Amino acid sequence: MQTKIITMLRLQQKLNDDTNGTGWEKGVTDKGKPIDWYRCALLECAETIDSYPWKHWKSIDADPDYANIKIEAVDIWHFVLSMALAREPHKDDKTYETLAQSFITVPNFDAFVRGEHPSRDIYEQIETIETLMRTLLCDRDLTAILQAFYDVTMQSDLDLDSLYALYIGKNILNAFRQDHGYKEGAYIKVWNGKEDNEVMQTILNEHPDITPETLYQELETHYPA
């Protein structure tokens, strides 16, 4: 368990270093742009809610898009990892171990690892996401944020193993995007009629034991350059 958390923390550190420049932990990119991880996570929560048919005037008989809900949860996770990393600007092996331990000691972590799936209707699930949003806005305590996030992932049918697999996929996809002009607006997000997230998920489903390096190569093969 701890190894997977440490691996994700290390990958997130590298992605943030590559995207925002070293020293991003101070809250500013190397281009001088302020960083607000809480706002980032908050907006991803809003996108998660929009994957539910909550609108009384539109698609009232539709089913929740749980495939996308899982992706949105992973996007939130990127920002939660970043919040934790921003508190420890000087990293070494001991730092990552200490940070990982703070993730593991959250009260509902064991339930998250077991993949408990609480029985909630879609409106109760939305309220769970809104609890996370309130915590991001008002509390900002890392343990409280993690506890609220784990609750969201469990109702999305994610456990530590599946979150880890999807995180690795999305992390590599994010790195791929940056390498192919995402910041400059040159990146192509729809590949032959499918969003890049869908392509990434298809590759993971077909090759569940794929390494991050091979996944990057597979994305390169599918990218409509």
Written description of the protein model:
The structure is a single chain. The model has no long low-confidence stretch (mean pLDDT 94). A hairpin with a 2-residue loop joins β1 (190-191) and β2. This protein is mainly alpha-helical. A two-stranded antiparallel ribbon has the order 1-2. The protein has helices spanning 2-20, 37-49, 66-86, 93-104, 109-114, 122-139, 142-155, 160-179, 196-206, 212-222; strands at 190-191, 194-195. Helices cover 64% and strands 2% of the residues. It has one domain: Orthogonal Bundle (all-alpha NTP pyrophosphatase fold), CATH 1.10.4010. It has ten helices and two strands, in the order ααααααααββαα.
Helix proportion of residues, in percent? 55-70%
The shape is globular
Low-confidence stretches: none
The average pLDDT score comes to: 94
What is the CATH topology? all-alpha NTP pyrophosphatase fold
Describe the largest sheet: 2 strands, antiparallel
Instruction: Bin the strand percentage.
Output: under 5%
Rg over C-alpha atoms, rounded to the nearest angstrom: 17 Å
Query: Using DSSP, what is the number of strands?
Result: 2
The helix/strand series, from N terminus to C terminus, equals HHHHHHHHEEHH
Indicate the CATH class: Mainly Alpha
Per CATH, which architecture?
A: Orthogonal Bundle
- How many alpha or pi helices? 10
Q: What is the CATH homology-level superfamily? A: Type II deoxyuridine triphosphatase
Helix vs. strand class: mainly alpha
Major beta sheet, strand line-up: 1-2
**What's the N-to-C terminus distance?**
38 Å
Return the domain count. Answer: 1
